[in-house]
Specification:
single chain; globular; three-stranded antiparallel sheet; about 240 residues; 9 strands; alpha/beta
Length: about 240
């Protein structure tokens, strides 16, 4: 196996770390040490701090993986010295000085992905739209569990400017769900191409991290095997 033995998984909005179970099982079976961040989803600063806290505990270089909003988090937190590579799983990838909200500019709306925002500014995916918008390829039971275990996010986080863009200095990979109803497909392809990610497309919903764990684990494994060499190439360029 590679010199990189550690993987850190970062969930996105409206979810928690339990959705990574299939990926966790695949990677631990291959001998990786896998840690899962539990984002509070209260601010970018808080989610980055939670991720750094887990990265600090790694005993060597790690692959940092983010799904959806988790892509914004790993973009900011990924400058951590233990991060050797980044994997974006149907994930956002802003640049420094940009907000997450700006990534949507110029791309098509996603009418099946409906967010209910409360008076306190926190948002949930509308229950009646959850299955079609987030997890249409999951079983009815699994989609219901994801729906009913939602973690709301403070919607103001999407207006927070990033101060770092780890993908500028770290090699990146991207898994793109081609049936994602949360993001316009052109937006996903644009973001992954802009950061120079090695792209893997897979027919899946936005919940690709849960419904296609083998594909996601394969990409993470490839990143772990290739990241140190790729990082050396970036440093030399």
């Amino acid at each position: 196996m590679s010199e990189i033995k550690n993987v850190v998984l970062v969930h996105g909005a409206f979810a928690d770390g339990s959705g990574w179970r299939g990926v966790y099982d695949e990677l631990t079976a291959r001998g990786y040490a896998v840690s899962i961040v539990q984002n509070p989803l209260t601010s970018l600063e808080a989610d980055v701090a939670a991720t750094r806290r887990v990265l600090d505990r790694q005993d060597g270089p790690a692959i940092l993986v983010g799904h959806s909003w988790g892509g914004t988090v790993i973009t900011e937190a990924g400058v951590h010295p233990k991060v050797a590579g980044l994997v974006y799983v149907s994930a956002l990838a802003p640049d420094r000085g940009e907000t997450t909200a700006q990534q949507y500019d110029g791309f098509a709306p996603t009418p099946d992905f409906v967010i209910d925002v409360g008076d306190d500014g926190y948002g949930f995916i509308a229950p009646e739209k959850f299955a079609i918008g987030f997890a249409h390829d999951a079983s009815e039971a699994d989609a219901a569990f994801l729906r009913d275990s939602q973690v709301p996010i403070d919607m103001s986080v999407f207006a927070t400017e990033l101060t770092e863009a780890a993908w500028r200095d770290k090699p990146s990979w991207a898994v793109i769900a081609t049936d994602d109803h949360a993001f316009d497909q052109a937006m996903l392809q644009h973001m992954a191409t802009r950061i120079g990610a090695r792209i893997t497309n897979v027919a899946a919903s936005h919940a690709v991290f849960a419904t296609q764990p083998h594909v996601v684990a394969e990409v993470i494994d490839a990143a772990a095997r290739e990241a140190l060499t790729a990082q050396g190439g970036l440093a030399a360029s």
